[in-house]
Each structure stands twice: as structure tokens, then as C-alpha cells.
TrEMBL record:
Regions crossing the membrane: none
Keywords: Endonuclease, Hydrolase, Nuclease
Domain ENPP1-3/EXOG-like endonuclease/phosphodiesterase intervals: 405-606
Top-rank taxon: Bacteria
Record-level Gene Ontology MF annotations: endonuclease activity
UniProt feature, compositional bias: Low complexity: 607-635
Protein name, UniProt field: DNA/RNA non-specific endonuclease
Domain DNA/RNA non-specific endonuclease/pyrophosphatase/phosphodiesterase, residue spans: 404-622
Length: 645
């Protein structure tokens, strides 16, 4: 539904700007203004680009290939905004202009209360395969900073540091803003990145020329010259999008479309026209209006207005000064490029909820030696995967095949994004008290593409998530020795490298009972043992997306991760320091727990275990333990009775 008065006002403003532009071109000052425009433009071009400045004014559409690369970086800072207003609820666009600081239109966030109730979602877009990425919604934080201006239709608001999904706002960078003119010229391109109608992020690259841009007189900027006019496809929801030049400098804040107008012969008043040439009426749908251009607020004028608001004694004085200071402090040098490729490092966050995701830095893992080969007084080497699995080992960033933590080690499968095996040393004589449950973290030593995608675990704050993050090395197993070492070991178990998806009832009961049995037996005996744990990968393990069909997360894109149905544990120990090496093997299944579909509607928490699963107190299998994945460098003597580790 159109707002005829607003559209008419904008159309008349564009007509006045076009008339002023014509007058500018005919004035005696035109050559001097053209020279000034070229000089200003050179300040935002790299030396090689300055040699071809004439292409800025002509219709030469060739661009260096890095244009696409920089565009992807710039797009990271653009978000979709949802405003839950009872009368005008809807979605718009916005973008980060400094670390943790967002800009959109005044008409999107007209008040403090609107900002406090709204959210900004980043990564609401498709990847190169056409699949939706996992979105990261951030709360807006007007209590920290909020400033708006109705005349220039902008609003600036702070954003929460961390989203409910565990993402950090610092990871999405920002788009530097510069007060100098010269970022764009007549007839150059105006590219938009936006969320039209709240859809996944889109870019307008074609048919997007600046059609009216009146240059400022040298030394005398025109206070009425606050807007740019351009042809670029937009829709409702594009409001608040950044408008870029060909070097990805932000030149304007997009605000609205401009319609064709005419003088009504009866009243002599200007009216908005529909595509059929008749006057538009209040309530006519948007698609019937004859749209001719779009209007954006010049960034240089917004920054000037912030300075003036800060100098005035109004309610936004302090916020405007703070916003301008943060923008200027993070703008950098325009000759270094429009997009800062080096982002602010994400801050470590403390979470009250145990299932939030954090990112720990390398210092949390330095010096960890992992499994001690001589822990039992004779060498127990790391498992060696067979040839098929060895081809799928995920290498750490330094080229290592094994990740070492306090008292345990892990080898990752690159394709399945889970451990091939974990190996933990447990000392029953030196058990230490454990601390509060720490937050989960990626391991920074290995690419996140080789670690589980956390979307399969955390749909939100609800306990009824898709799957538990099932520990392979139980959080209490390596917690022994000196307090500082024990505490670090517990934190290390909360890495996603130590995780496989496990149905909650299976993880809490059947798998948990086995873990309890091994640890309690080891402590009671006051001995040491080594536990090797991992999933048993099968080619027909179900895809996570298939298991969620029919549930509330069916429409949430899931990665192509298969859920293991079976898991193994091999426990090795000696009854005394000189006794033979003994071992017990256990296999547990979650087949029954994940067999029913749809997963959320028919899942039974704590369902009876499969008949093929073994009780935690049953005797270990005699003879060699064959898991199809591992072969040991030493053949342990099988145990003859219940596990006495």
C-alpha cells in the first residue's frame, strides 16, 4: 500500500535536484566543478585506477576480478532487520559501520523502543551451492547507543556482542564511512546489497546508474543536496541498505523509491502516476506505481549531521558524538581500500547457559601433550586407522594428524567431521574435583570445516534440541592431577572435536552408564587405564536432515552430516605395574532411539536400548576386539571377566 504524500514529496525533491543539476551544467562554474569532482574522485582510487579515471564518467563496465572478492567481504556486514511493531511489523536492511554499530533508516527504527524490540540477522543468505547458511540473529542494544534523525532518515544503534547461536558481532566486520566527497560521480554505478521483502541477501549489480548527483560548489556545500538518485532494483525491505560505488565504498543509505509524477489538469497539483498513466490513489498496490528511480541519503551528509547533533543540546548529543567518534576511529585510510580485510578479533565470551558456543584462542591448548605412550608402564601406541579411513584424516593447520589435549588425544575424520578415535589416560589415584561445566568451543588448531557443524546441536535455548553434543572423552575422565592441569583438561573436553551427535536418552542413560562404570571402577581400584572411544562409521548412517523431517526444524538448512548409529569403547589396563596388558571392548547403539520419524514428534527420551546393545555390567567380549576401523600396534591380552580397570 502506497503512502502517496511521502512518494510525492520524494518525487518533487528529485525533480528539484534534477533541475539544479541542469543549472549546474549550464553555469560558468561547470568546468571548475568538473575539475573538483575529478580531483575528489582521485582521492578514493588506487594509483593504477587513476590512469583510467575517464572510465568513471563513461559507460565502461569492465572491473578487476577482485571486485567480486571484495563484494563478498562487504556483504558480511549487511544484515536483515526484523521490527515487531504491532501496526507496521516487517523486515528491512541494515549494515555495520563500526565494530558493533549498525545503521539503518529512521523509518525502520524510529524510536528507542522499536530498536530495543528488534533484531539484526547476519548470514541470512545462500552459499555457493544455493543452500541457506545458518543465520545469526543479534539483539539490538539501544541502551548502549542509539541516535536517529528524521530529516536525513537514518538511525544508528549498538548491537549485542554475541548472538544466541554463539556468533560474535566482531566476526561480521564493518563498512567504513568517509565524510569526504568524491566517492561517486554522475553516471557511475550504484550497487546495493539488501534483503528485499526479507528474502535471503541479494545484490543489485545491473541497470544501477546514478542519474542525478549534483556536485557541491567548491567551498560551499548546498544544504539541500543531501540525496543521490539512481536506477537500481529494490523492493520493500531494501530500506536501510548500503549503496556502494565500484570500489565498494559506501556512498549512500538507501531509503525509498521515486515514482513518476505529473500535474493534475483539474487541480493543478502534482500527482503520482500509475503504469497506465492514471493518478495513483491511496491504497493502490506498489506494483501498479510507475517507479522511475531510487533515493539514498549521502553518507557525507549523514556524518555532517552527526557532528551537528553532537554540537547541539538535544537528546542525542552524547550518542551522536560517540557514534561519530567510533565511525571515524574505524574508517582507516581510504587508499587502503573500502573494506577492512583484517577484522577485529572476536572477544572471548562468558556464558551462563552451558550449551552456548565460544571460541577459545591457541593459548588454551599450548603445551598439551595428549596421551602418554608409557602411561601404563609399557608402550601403548596410538591407534592406526586402516587404509580407507587413513585417506580421510583431517590435518591440523600445522600439518599434524593428531590433536593433543590435557591427558587425551584425538584424530579427526575430515569427511564425517567427527573423531575417528579418542584416547584418554585415566589415573584412579589422582582424581581431582571438577569445576563448573564450561562452554563448548571450536578448536582453533584445525579448520572449522573439519569440526561438527553446531547447527545440528543447538536450535535455540530449548533443551529439546536435535541431538546432544555427545562427549567421546567424558568430561571427568582426564580430570586428575594438579588442580590447574585438571581444570584445563575438563575445559579441553568441551571442544567440538570431541563430539559426536547422540540422541539425548542414549547419551544420558546407556552411554552415560557405560562411562560411569569405567570411571567408577578405575577409581575404586586406584589404578590407571586407557580408554579408546569413537563412532563406528557406516556408509548408510542416516543424514541429520532426513532425521529432522516432520519436526519444527525441517526448514532449517542442515549440513550433510551423517549420524553414527554405533559407538565403541576399548579399555586397556594392567592389574599391577608388572602385569600383562588387558583389554575390554564395548559397543553401544542408538539405532532404536533415532529410528522413529519424524524425529521430534515420535522420539522417546530414555527409550529401551537395542537388544544388540550391551549392558554396562555385562562381561566384555573375549578374543580380539574387531571394530573394522582400528588395528593396534600391540595385541592386548583379553580380559577374563568383568572389566576390573
Amino acid at each position: 500500500m502506497i503512502d502517496a504524500d511521502r512518494i510525492l514529496e520524494a518525487a518533487l525533491r528529485m525533480s528539484a535536484a534534477a533541475a539544479a543539476k541542469d543549472a549546474e551544467l549550464q553555469s560558468a562554474m561547470a568546468p571548475a566543478m568538473q575539475d573538483k569532482a575529478i580531483a575528489d574522485r582521485r582521492r578514493f582510487l588506487k594509483p593504477g585506477e587513476r590512469l583510467h579515471l575517464e572510465r568513471t564518467f563513461d559507460d565502461d563496465d569492465k572491473l578487476p576480478i577482485r571486485y567480486l572478492d571484495l563484494g563478498f567481504v562487504a556483504a558480511r556486514s549487511v544484515c536483515r532487520i526484523y521490527v515487531p511493531d504491532p501496526q507496521t511489523a516487517g523486515e528491512a536492511s541494515g549494515f555495520l559501520i563500526a565494530p558493533g554499530l549498525l545503521m539503518t533508516n529512521h523509518h525502520v527504527l524510529p524510536t528507542f523502543d522499536h530498536a530495543a524490540a528488534s533484531a539484526a540477522t547476519f548470514d541470512a543468505e545462500e552459499d555457493r551451492f544455493g543452500r541457506l547458511r545458518a543465520p545469526h540473529p543479534f539483539a539490538l542494544d539501544p541502551q548502549t547507543l542509539y541516535v536517529n534523525d528524521e530529516a536525513l532518515d537514518f538511525a544508528i544503534v549498538a548491537v549485542a556482542d554475541v548472538s544466541p547461536t554463539g556468533a560474535h558481532i566482531a566476526d561480521f566486520g564493518w563498512l567504513p564511512l568517509f565524510a569526504d566527497t568524491g566517492k561517486i560521480t554522475d553516471h557511475s554505478c550504484a550497487t546495493l546489497i539488501h534483503h528485499p521483502r526479507g528474502q535471503p541477501k541479494q545484490v543489485t549489480l545491473r541497470g544501477n546508474k546514478i542519474i542525478v548527483y549534483k556536485y557541491d560548489m567548491p567551498g560551499a556545500p548546498d544544504p539541500a543536496n543531501n540525496f543521490l538518485y539512481y536506477t537500481a532494483d529494490t523492493e520493500e525491505g531494501s530500506s536501510g541498505a548500503p549503496v556502494f560505488n565500484d570500489q565498494w565504498f559506501v556512498v549512500a543509505l538507501h531509503r525509498q523509491a521515486i515514482a513518476k509524477t505529473a500535474t493534475d489538469p483539474g487541480s493543478g497539483q502534482p500527482v503520482v502516476l500509475k503504469k497506465d498513466g492514471t493518478p495513483a490513489l491511496i491504497g493502490d498496490p506498489d506494483d501498479q506505481i510507475d517507479w522511475v528511480a531510487n533515493e539514498g541519503v549521502r553518507i557525507s551528509r549523514i556524518l555532517v549531521q552527526l557532528r551537528e547533533l553532537g554540537a547541539a543540546a538535544g537528546p542525542f548529543a552524547a550518542a551522536a558524538t560517540a557514534a561519530l567518534g567510533k565511525i571515524q576511529a574505524n574508517a582507516g585510510n581510504p587508499l587502503a581500500g573500502a573494506v577492512p580485510l583484517a577484522r577485529t578479533p572476536a572477544k572471548a565470551a562468558t556464558f551462563s547457559a552451558p550449551f552456548e558456543l565460544v571460541r577459545r584462542d591457541l593459548s588454551h591448548f599450548s603445551g598439551a601433550t595428549g596421551h602418554d605412550l608409557d602411561f601404563l608402564g609399557l608402550k601403548v601406541e596410538f591407534p592406526i586407522p586402516n587404509a580407507d579411513v587413513a585417506r580421510e584424516i583431517a590435518l591440523a593447520k600445522n600439518g599434524d594428524k593428531i590433536l593433543h589435549y590435557e591427558h587425551f588425544s584425538i584424530q579427526m575424520n575430515a569427511r564425517r567431521r567427527m573423531p575417528i578415535w579418542t584416547m584418554v589416560d585415566i589415573d584412579g589415584k589422582k582424581v581431582a574435583a571438577h569445576g563448573d561445566r564450561p562452554g563448548w568451543s571450536y578448536d582453533p588448531r584445525i579448520d572449522e570445516q573439519f569440526q561438527p557443524d553446531d547447527r545440528i546441536f543447538s536450535p535455540g535455548q530449548s533443551r529439546a534440541r536435535a541431538f546432544d553434543r555427545g562427549h567421546m572423552v567424558r568430561q571427568l575422565d582426564p580430570v586428575w592431577g594438579k588442580p590447574a592441569i585438571a581444570a584445563r583438561a575438563q575445559v579441553h573436553t568441551f571442544c567440538l572435536t570431541n563430539v559426536c551427535p547422540q540422541e539425548h536418552g542414549f547419551n544420558d542413560k546407556e552411554w552415560g552408564d557405560l562411562e560411569d562404570h569405567i570411571l567408577s571402577t578405575t577409581i575404586a581400584a586406584g589404578e590407571r587405564c586407557i580408554v579408546i572411544t569413537g563412532p563406528i562409521f557406516q556408509f548408510d548412517d542416516p543424514l541429520i536432515g532426513d532425521l529432522l523431517k516432520g519436526g519444527p526444524r525441517e526448514d532449517v538448512p542442515m549440513p550433510d552430516i551423517r549420524v553414527p548409529r554405533r559407538f565403541f569403547k576399548v579399555v586397556a589396563w594392567r592389574d599391577d605395574s608388572k602385569g600383562p596388558l588387558k583389554a575390554a571392548g564395548f559397543v553401544r547403539e542408538q539405532t532404536d532411539e533415532i529410528a522413529s520419524k519424524p524425529f521430534f514428534e515420535k522420539m522417546v527420551i530414555g527409550a529401551p536400548s537395542s537388544s544388540s546393545a550391551r549392558s554396562p555390567t555385562s562381561k566384555p567380549r573375549s578374543g580380539s576386539v574387531s571394530l573394522g576401523l582400528l588395528r593396534s600396534t600391540r595385541s592386548p591380552t583379553p580380559a577374563d571377566g568383568t572389566c576390573r580397570c
